[in-house]
Amino acid sequence: MIHQHPRFYVGGDRYIEVELGDGMSFELNILVHNLVAAIRQAAIPGIIELIPELASMQISYDPEVISYADVVREVGALHDGASRTDAAELPSRMFYIPVMYFDPWTEACIEDYRSRQPDKQPDAQLVCQANGLPGRDALRRLHAGTDYWVAALGFWPGLCSLMPLDDRARIVAPKYNPPRTWTPRGAVGLGGALTCIYPDRTPGGYQLLGRTPVPTFDREQRLPAFHDDIVLFRPGDRVRFIPIDQAEFEFLESEVEAGRYEHHCVEHQTFSVGRYREARRRLEAGQPAGGSA
What we know:
Keywords: ATP-binding, Hydrolase, Nucleotide-binding
Helix content: 25-40%
GO molecular function, one term: hydrolase activity
CATH architecture of the largest domain: Beta Barrel
Protein name: Transporter
CATH superfamily of the largest domain: Cyclophilin-like
Pfam families: CT_C_D
Number of domains: 2
Strand content: 25-35%
């Protein structure tokens, strides 16, 4: 549900948590991004940093320049405009990420977990059953058949929350219970309706579908994509997964290790919220997304 008015929560003497809703949807997330863009454009003195999340955002501010009450008043006024806009054009880079679906490394991780939790279904089998898919090939085609929206980053540097932009490719799955103690770096997982790419070897709870050989987090900043930041994605980027086989995986992995790999990214693109909404309306009406009425 989207709140009619944003809810503000004190986060210490320099942070404010702004909650715009209590669900998980593209419309709610795009409202977060629209409000972030509006605040940045307004360049309000004293506001230092904005951190967009799935349904909320965090504001860092300097209390010696602007008071808590004034931040609430300014952001509340901007929210009224952001919530109505259908003409927003947001900066949105497009990344193409190679993925080996059902790879041996994540399969070994799954089997290690199942050796201690034998009632746990293998991940691909569970996801297929939960979504009425006949098998792994259908799951791979469906998961790789849409662009994904980078809705948020968090919990670990570079850990992304990806929403499918094509509703026809929406897949859902429960999380592990209890969670795993380890996950291979680069694993691609599904939890709820979100996809993530594990940026490092970490614990995790998403169902594992594959693994990418290319990094999304590089603390040493060796590759060109990390010259300006240690993480690859920004909120509002888009991602498309490109299925590869093991030979391609090993070649790309060797390029990464040699420091020669360059991420496939289309820069300087924008995402039109209005045109996307129109495409969704057409699909819901049974018309081609880009066709004429």
